[in-house]
Amino acid sequence: MARLFLLLNSVALLLFGTDMFLVGANRPPAPVNVSVMNLRADSATVYWEVPEGDIIIGFSILQQRQDGHMQRFIREVNTTSRACVLWDLEEETDYIVQVQSIGLYGESQASNLVHFRTLKKSDRFPSNSSNQDDPTVQGLDKSRNLQTGEMIIIVIVLLMWAAVIALFCRQYDIIKDNDNSNSKEKVKPSSERSTPEHHSGGLLRSKFHQSVPSINIIEV
Question: Contact, 197 vs 203, CB < 8 A?
Fold first, then answer.
């Protein structure tokens, strides 16, 4: 009975060791050439490369402050991306990152530790020509251009509305002045044709008196 139990334990250990060997052999290699670029006060971009010949379906990133107070794990599958943007970082803070590749049979070994330090908020972005190819920088440039274009369109529309309102007010004043002048001209002739009245309320009598026949008497 003891021999049977020992034999079963040996077989189990052999199978477990074989499985671990096969899984370890099928795991993808660790990422290489890990670098951190596009440093900002609150963000940075991690880049890495994967050796050819392995099927990679995702990545896993360990991000933590160098003093060890905060850790963050980022895991993404069903992607072929070789870059990841790290957000919500603290300014002037030291960080370290490690990258792992995710394959069909598990994760690779972690890459070498990479150290970087964020900038101050008052610092200007570094003018690096390689940053122009970064999708993050391109997205920022596109959003800035879009905001500028929207502001120009809004200003043009407001100016057009202001011009239309000014023209309407001018036309309204002209029409109102014409109506007032026409009403004055209509009232003036009627007042001139009216019969003047005496201050006592009676009508003025005609200046011409009726002719009275004259009688001439001749004495003989």
Answer: yes
pLDDT of the residue at 4: 52
Of 57, 59, 40, residue with least CA distance to 97: 59
The predicted pLDDT at position 26 comes to 77
188: tokens are: 């003036």
DSSP string, the chain: -HHHHHHHHHHHHHHHHHHHHHHHHHSPPPPEEEEEES--SS-EEEEEE--TTS-EEEEEEEEEETTSS-EEEEEEES----EEEE-SPPTT-EEEEEEEEEETTEE------EEEE---TTSPPP--GGGGG-HHHHHHHHHHHHHHHHHHHHHHHHHHHHHHHHHHHHHHHHHHHHHHHHHHHHHHHHHHHSPPB-TTSSBPPPSSPPPPPP------
Burial class (CB in 10 A: 0-12, 13-18, 19+), 56: buried
What pLDDT score does 208 carry? 45
**Series of mean pLDDT values for 10-residue runs along the chain (220 residues):** 55 48 67 95 95 89 91 92 94 96 92 95 59 50 62 89 89 82 64 48 46 48
